[in-house]
């Protein structure tokens, strides 16, 4: 028993070390700032990163990358706040950051419409404001760094155009209702794939809320109702991997194609293994680099306004090793 | 008279009647429903929730509740995955999952039974703590490459999927605990009337510890199966499972006020929920409509249960008015000694 | 005008498995008190619920002033001038007096509740009655008797002609009983009729003009009170002759000292209490309510902590800080509060009965269901528990039968010492007698019995010795030749003097 607890402790410590790449000097949690600070050239800038939800694996990865990237800037101190996937909390965090007179605020919105007035307040307060993943449109004076979700979906859809066989039966796994990224990716699939391929039939489509376990259950049932499914089209990799789990080893599903988005470590491994077909990378490291660069340029006056997109490279069996190496380096894939 | 009573006992089986109706309806709606593959498929799908539901049931019968089940399940499952990856021992991993479940629940039990804090609040706190712990442990990332760990959730023993086998064993064990042991009798008594149970010599605190202990072991096992089934250590797993776990026993006739509930009722409740989800997926009903149907089923099942039980209560009023007792305020009347005199 | 105000004809009501009412007919004359007597379970409550519209009869008719009425709900009943003053007063504790006065029919003005009118009316009625409550007082600040008075006033104010009172004296003090009776007589003189349900014979014969007796759902007699006697009514109620004057007491050869409690104290409850009980002895513990009698036995049994004092069983010092330990040392306690500290309502009578002896029915890892069934059946037969089966939920039994199941629980546990706190409270005459017989049998087996009771004749009839407590202290220990209601009362009211 004692031994076991020690093991758990050891494992958790190991996981910790692996994930906190490079000793970073950032702090997380609630700031107890005394609130002083002018918007002038300073030696030390206080930057708030308001994350959508620390419990969301991509958002958590991005937050970790943000922390790691901030450590590369000597004049930036980054504090990370958790919006807990709740508009109310996210809005309150923005207000707090304004009141605490941060020099810059990076906002990963939970719901662009809901955060819009609060982001406007930050801009009006003269604070450097950057929206990211996704970008919030329609705010004068705010900068943005984003991956374009339409493009992310489109690049995979275009690849699928060639690969999906004639008269194929496909199933579609969607993100949560009214999710900006989920909706845009689905739209890309519609325009870039389904409109071009009227021969393809969608035999089942539903939301699995980005979750692997929900996608697993859906696919278990769908695969029973539809003995022939040629491709899984999923709006993220988690759900694609869940669907693949459901048909693993099942006869008749060996050659099934599977598409996702995000380029998660798991997806790169599945692509290498040959069970998953393609995904596009939403690179948290690159997002973090561009965000911090944007903030730094804006604070130092090198730029007035920034609006950039990260690339969204397609990952297939041909180039997957490259990304696996990247993840191994970041400690997100073990050896 | 007895035979008339017995026929009336049918209402006790209302939940099983609903289950049969659902099964029959499902087999008409989809030709795939009754295929051997799908039967195991449904059982595999309900295994995790049903195991959690047994834990919830034993707590609710004892007059308590566990809101931390979903979060502790994720914590236990991820801990199990990590232990497996570092030790390559299935047994150790399994025990680790159970240990995490049990430890979290012993903390719950200490606060509830020893310090007399309401279980609702205690387990709400534990829900946050366990979720925070598992997110901190993984830094919010999914744990991958589980290797043979997936056997527990995906393997078969002969024809029988291992999760189903585990579910059957646990069903038998829980049935035994609730019906054949002193613990079982005691937990019904504690939930039914804690003061009276204490006065009958039941060690109430110990019973509460035992209930949380059982729940902890079940939550741990559920976590191991869950992670193995999805082939990943998901720190976000099980959000909302605490409520789903409560749904099955409540549909199955477990009373929220404690002291009432059966293992097979809970199993039937879990199967109803599982079969409905399955059949709606099979015939292509979307998840939005599924939520409406699930909500309806919960309300209808419980309303029907209450309705049929009300009928039964009437039957057993039998020879009596409701139990009559002077209200407690009788103690305020100093003259009671004199006026109670039946002898004149 | 008809000579009957309320006339009930051939009412039948069945619940599945039981015929609750069988061809019940009776008449209530205007301006009379009509007592309805019967054991618990005889059908009184069902009958009253039908008259009040809570249940619907299977067949039969009800006439008010010669006109047939169909009472579908208590609201209908009110419209026909029938009001029920309930047995267990149901009220909303946070409600004000004035509000409760108009509950269910709040007068409106311009669509809003007319509070000014409500307060005015409540005040006027209460002033007329000589009550000086402010209409704004909340009900939870009133005594049970005051609430009862209010309920009666309310019924009369809303022009009730027939008032049903179900055991109205069960929860109020002696002095208050007198004023209640005065009120009832005044109402009768105003021409109202009262249906008075009770099994206290002295009350019935003080008040009633007519007496109807129900047994097993049927009326066995209905006649003017002058034409019958309390002995006859009791005989009709129980269906056999019960000589109520004599208790089934046997003198038993007393054995060794089984139970000894010395210098028991608990702050704000009792102080310096000594108790001794020998094998075969039934010892009474008398005192006014609030004297600390129940507190003593609760503490001895481990339900409440003791500040100091020792307990010995069979000459051995034992620690009984939890009921579990007390039971292990052979002590059993039947609480005065059957519902709160006695029954597990949703469990079967079988499971209730074996709860304190689980080791006897579940051992070696298995539940011995045939052993349990046998054990329970044996005791239930011995004690004459009336229930459809051993699987019946205890909550559906009458008070007397519940009490027998709880006694069976302790007999199965086979204790040496039995602390019985008001063992016959709230149960009917027949069941009381059976419990007395049982106590005698237990004494014969050599058990030590302590009985707390507020019914002095019961103590005098059953005990070998009586302790009297007052204000948390022991004030007397009486031997049989000293037994009398006067002596006990004198010591029970004595605050200082130690006998």
From TrEMBL, chain A:
GO molecular function, one term: carbohydrate binding
Major site of localization recorded for this protein: other
Top-level taxon: Bacteria
Pfam families with a match to the protein in the record: Peripla_BP_4 (PF13407)
SUPFAM superfamilies the UniProt entry points to: Periplasmic binding protein-like I
Annotated GO CC locations: cell envelope
Location within or outside the cell: Cell envelope
Domain spans labelled Periplasmic binding protein: 47-302
Keywords: Signal
InterPro entries in the cross-refs: Peripla_BP_I, SBP_2_dom
Family annotation (Gene3D superfamilies): 3.40.50.2300
Keyword Transferase: no
Signal sequence range: 1-24
Family: Belongs to the bacterial solute-binding protein 2 family.
UniProt-recorded name of the protein: Substrate-binding domain-containing protein
Organism: Arthrobacter yangruifuii
Top-level taxonomy: Bacteria, Bacillati, Actinomycetota, Actinomycetes, Micrococcales
From TrEMBL, chain B:
Cellular compartments per GO CC: plasma membrane
Chief location bin: membrane
Keywords: Cell membrane, Membrane, Transmembrane, Transmembrane helix
Membrane topology field: Multi-pass membrane protein
Start and end residues of each stretch annotated as Disordered: 317-344
Subcellular location: Cell membrane
Transmembrane segments: 12-31, 51-84, 91-113, 157-178, 209-227, 248-276, 288-307
A Gene Ontology molecular function term of the record: transmembrane transporter activity
Pfam families with a match to the protein in the record: BPD_transp_2 (PF02653)
InterPro entries on file: ABC_transp_permease
Record bears the keyword GTP-binding: no
Taxonomy, superkingdom: Bacteria
Protein's recorded name: Ribose ABC transporter permease
Gene: rbsC
UniProtKB/TrEMBL annotation, chain C:
Matching InterPro entries: AAA+_ATPase, ABC_carbohydrate_import_ATPase, ABC_transporter-like_ATP-bd, ABC_transporter-like_CS, P-loop_NTPase
GO CC term (a single one): plasma membrane
ABC transporter domain: residues covered: 6-241, 252-496
Membrane topology value: Peripheral membrane protein
One Pfam family named in its UniProt record: ABC_tran
Sorted UniProt keywords: ATP-binding, Cell membrane, Membrane, Nucleotide-binding, Repeat, Translocase, Transport
Localization per Swiss-Prot or TrEMBL: Cell membrane
PROSITE patterns associated with the record: ABC_TRANSPORTER_1, ABC_TRANSPORTER_2
Domain of life (superkingdom): Bacteria
A molecular-function term among this protein's GO annotations: ATP binding
Protein name: ATP-binding cassette domain-containing protein
Organism: Arthrobacter yangruifuii
